[in-house]
Amino acid sequence: MMEKLEILTASAKYDVACTSSGASRSGQPGSLGNAVSMGICHSFAADGRCISLLKVLMTNGCIYDCAYCVNRKSNPTRRAAFTPEEIANLTMQFYRRNYIEGLFLSSGIMRSPDYTTEQLIAALELLRNVYNFRGYIHVKAIPGADDVLLSRLGLLADRMSVNIELPSQESLNRLAPDKSKQSILKPMGLIKNKITENSSDLVKYKHTPRFAPAGQSTQMIIGATPDTDYQILNLTEGLYKKYGLKRIFYSAYTPVVEDSLLPALDTKPPLLREHRLYQADWLLRFYGFEAKELLDEAAPNFNPLLDPKCSWAINHREQFPVEINRAPYETLLRVPGIGVRSAQRILKARRAGSLDFYALKKLGVVLKRAQFFITCKGKPLEGLKVGEHTLLRSLMSGQELAKFQQPEVEQLSFFDDSYMAALPEAGRAATFGKGV
Amino acid sequence: MFKTTALAYTYDGSFEGLLCCVFESYEWKETPLAIHSLEEGQGLLLESKWIETDSVKADRVLRSIPLKISPEAEELVRLGFWSNAMDKEMLLLNFLYLGFTHGRRVMNMLADDTVSALNKAVQQLRREGHHYLGFVRFSVYGPVMAAVIEPRGYILPVIEDHFCDRFQNESFMIYDKTHGMALLHQPGRQAIIPLQEWIPPEPDEAEAAYRRLWQGFYNAIGIKERKNDRLRASLMPKRYWKQLPEMNGNAPALPALPARQEQTARRLKSGRPRKLQ
Q1: Are residues B95 and B155 in the same domain?
Q2: Angstroms from A148 CA to nearest CA on chain B
Q3: According to the UniProt record, where is the region Disordered (chain B) (predicted)?
Q4: Pairing of strands A247-252, A43-44
């Protein structure tokens, strides 16, 4: 059992989705478990990523041969498979001990997409109907499976996901010849329609079983192909709008197999790039930004030195400064150093009296960044000097600089011209003049 | 305005007791320099006034909070009392002075030093409570389950409903070693009671096996190319590790040592002189 668990966990570890959020369900006598909409992290792995679900594959055997995948048919790795009974029992035992918030179940494709989906259904039916498990379940929809089977699966799970894997059709053709954009988007569309249909049924009939109440998510691999951040962010925006996705996860490509089409095995995962994409994703979902505001054809990649919001603000100096005591919420959100929480606090606190810079600090505003973009009662911060040098240096956090200075973490050349060009003229002097 | 006296109040450490301190302060129109609970004793060379806990007085103060300030203020005061903020008693007293003066407006005065400090303390308590929704680890002993926690703030009431809802059919106990309290639950019944000491029994074979499986899972899920100890320690601070089986059985560096010894060990390793005890 231990060996199986280790093999099937190791095979699932590149799946990023680990959140347990979005569904709310109270406990019930005779059942075990509930679901909490904000999600609960139960542990953190050595790589710092959150563990909230028992994340395993049903089997790591697979009939497909996707180049980037550790479970590809042609990769000589140890194979194992769980029975539905084993999955259900392990989930219950871990859940009782409060090790986990629920189950994340995916699988290699065994025999056929339909057969695989039937196995997933069997495991989930055991959990829900025999063990009366009310905890969180995230399940992978298998592309190519029958609609009827996918619908049954969605009624047993809280969240469903289909992985986009690669951001463009060309990349898919190259690296995942068995998959097509269509085979991924079709189940995604089906899930979306089921969720919409279900929510109108819920209004009509009180006891309609819920279809994937926590919505659907997807993930894509970053850095295995030449796709730009601009392409990725546009795709992201489209998926949020068109398919109503709840989350999109980005996974810095970690080489697992040798392949002439892929980055070499000693390539480090592009963690900083992944980080910038998550920051931008946040700006789309919670800060009212659009992809085309953040990047364009001319500058299709994020600046490694500045976070996307700072980059945007520097290029839109005409929209600043913002008066803290009058600006609407949406405008406050666009100020670097002001997040969702501090913007809400500002709205609340200014009802009790007007705010100065000292007050902002107490509300959690990061003045180091915000100071250049705001006024309080019409005045900028006393003694503030806004030269390009000070500005840029202040906006780059020490952490980000440190990350950038560790080329072993990030495979960007420090003197890569494209990144140099992305910096404003004087900024280059400010950053590189110090001889970092 | 009240006059500040060179007085410290001493009370029994209960929430009711603190409310009686508030009552006393208003009755005599005096502001104490400090408020100490019995257990912590008094460090200052102040004259100390013993405040007797009187449920009638406590009740009067408590009822006035939602009336004169707001229902949210009452919750804030309770949570503030459970936090482990420095001088939380004076903080709460000052907050109530402000509240009784400004009414419900005080809840918006986020930039005020007192309000801001109290909000921070409560936020910290809530954050710790949320952490423990994930970091509580039960061991299964036959028909019952038990967990030990060592929180800084008094979070049992914060996490009570969550666990009682989640494990409705189970009999379980969460023992708070720091505060000597335990949350007990049986189907249909729950209570938080004082419990001075409790030593968990040795796990049986099945329990040990599931702990090993969990450790195996934990080790298999991390991606070694992305190893990031600092990130992990900031998301899961080391003070929680002691009660986490995944961090005990196999923590790479000096797992069993308490934090301070570990620091010393690290200092030794890095070649800096060892501080004499």
Answers
A1: no
A2: 32
A3: 251-277
A4: unpaired
CB nearest B111 (choices: A34, A36, A355): A355
Count Cα neighbours of A287 within 13 Å in the Cβ-side half-sphere. 28
Which of B172, B194, B216 is the C-terminal boundary of a domain? B194
Name chain B contacts of A94, Cβ cutoff 8 Å: 210, 213-214, 217
B:241-260 residues touching chain A, CB 8 A cutoff: 244, 246
In the listed set B76, B105, B127, which residue is the last one of a domain according to the structure?
A: B127
Of the residues A355, A362, A377, the best mutation for testing chain B's interface (the one with the most B CB atoms within 10 Å of its CB) is A362
Residues 32-71 on B with a CB inside 8 Å of A are none
Instruction: Kindly state whether residues B189 and B260 are assigned to the same domain.
Output: no
Tell me which of B123, B148, B223, B250 to substitute to probe the interface with A (most A C-beta atoms closer than 10 Å): B223
Complex prediction ipTM = 0.86
Spell out which residues of chain A touch residue B140, defining contact as CB-CB under 8 Å. 96-97
A299-318: buried (b, 16+ CB within 10 Å) or exposed (e) per residue? bbbbbbbbbbbbbbbbeeee
Q: Which of A1, A351, A358 faces B213 most closely, judged by CB atoms? A: A1
* Structural domain that includes position B254: 205-270
Query: Which chain B residues are closer than 8 Å to A269 by Cβ?
Result: 225-226
Q: Based on the domain organization, do B61 and B163 belong to the same domain?
A: no
Smallest Cα distance from B182 to chain A, Å: 17
Q: Which residue of B has its CA nearest to A54?
A: B217
Residue B199 included in any domain: no
| Residue B206, CB-side half-sphere exposure with 13 Å CA sphere | 10
- Which residue in chain A has the smallest CA separation from B227? A47
User: Which residue in chain A is spatially nearest to B237 when comparing CA positions?
Assistant: A44
- Entry pTM: 0.86
Mean pLDDT of B61-77: 97
Cα A31 from Cα A240, distance rounded (Å): 34
Alpha-carbon span A314 to A24, nearest angstrom: 41
B62 and B157 fall within a common domain:
no
Which of B24, B36, B25 is closest to B3 using CA atoms?
B25
- What's the structural domain count of chain B? 3
Two tokens, residue A201: 């049924």
Same domain, B104 and B38: yes
Q: What is the pLDDT of residues A3-53, one digit of tens each?
A: 899 999 988 888 887 788 888 989 999 899 999 999 999 999 999 999 999
> Are B105 and B21 in a shared domain?
yes
Q: B119 and B13, same structural domain? A: yes
pLDDT tens digits for A52-78? 999 999 999 999 988 888 899 998 889
B232 occurs within a structural domain: yes
User: Are both B115 and B25 inside the same structural domain?
Assistant: yes
Other CB atoms within 10 Å distance of the CB of residue B145? 21
Cβ separation B222–A46 shorter than 8 A: yes
On whether residue B151 sits in a domain, the answer given is yes
Give me the residue from B113, B134, B214 closest to A40, CB to CB.
B134
**pLDDT beneath 70, residues of chain A:** 397-436
Reading the block at residue B44, the tokens are: 């200052």
For residue B157, being part of any structural domain is answered with yes
